[in-house]
Amino acid sequence: MYSRMEPQLSPIALADLRPTQMTVGMLEVERKRHGWRARVASDGPEFLGTHMIPVIIGPKQTPWMIDNHHLARALLDEGVEHVLVSVVARLDRLDRSAFMTFMDNRNWLHPFDVKGVRRRYDDIPRKLSKMEDDPYRSIAGAVRRAGGYAKDLTPYSEFLWADFFRHRIDAKLIGHDMDKAVTKALALSHSQKANHLPGWCGAS
Fold first, then answer.
1. Does any domain span residue 166?
2. How does DSSP classify residue 110?
3. pLDDT of amino acid 9
4. How confident is the model at residue 125 (pLDDT cuts 50, 70, 90)?
């Protein structure tokens, strides 16, 4: 997904990182929060040192994160203040309009809301704390971990899966029985209906 990455060893405040997507799956965030709490006392600093957040440096030297939104949100919610980043590209010479267009064309933006509808660039939240919950993104993560599809380097691949499930699984089922919704999604992930999606591993 990324070519050259330049580690930046000086910590950056999580509150200063700009998201490049509008939503996260809050169940995924909670899972990562639980994992952090289990390890913070034993190897928290080492974990942070090996899980640098990939960023693009945009206009006004603003760091825009292009991956690991769930981890970053989990750390923020757990009270972590700073993280290390890897600088993928420095585009601070561009004006905002050119920057956003370039980011979009490189698939480094995902301006889609909780209904899967594309929105304006300005609708992307400025803070991690303002990202909304998309339960279908949580389903997509759970299905991948259950072997429903393989991890893929396609940018925002799990959002493609989330949108696939969005049109096939009733939101009422998710609210009533998340486990049943994930089971249904797992079956769908192996069907021919999903064979166009990244990481599909159903029967040919």
1. yes
2. B
3. 64
4. very high
pLDDT tier, 203 (very low <50, low <70, confident <90, very high otherwise): confident
Pairing state of beta strands 6-13 and 63-65? unpaired
Question: Which amino acid belongs to residue 50?
Answer: T
> What one-character DSSP code corresponds to residue 133?
E
User: How far is CA 8 from each of CA 12, 41, 54, 83, 148, rounded to the nearest angstrom?
Assistant: 9, 24, 10, 10, 35
Q: Output the domain CATH number for residue 58.
A: 3.90.1530.10
| Side chain identity at residue 143, one-letter code | V
Question: Are 104 and 91 a contacting pair, CB within 8 Å?
Answer: no
**Distance (Å, whole) CA 49 – CA 26:** 24
Domain housing 176: 135-194
pLDDT given at position 7? 62
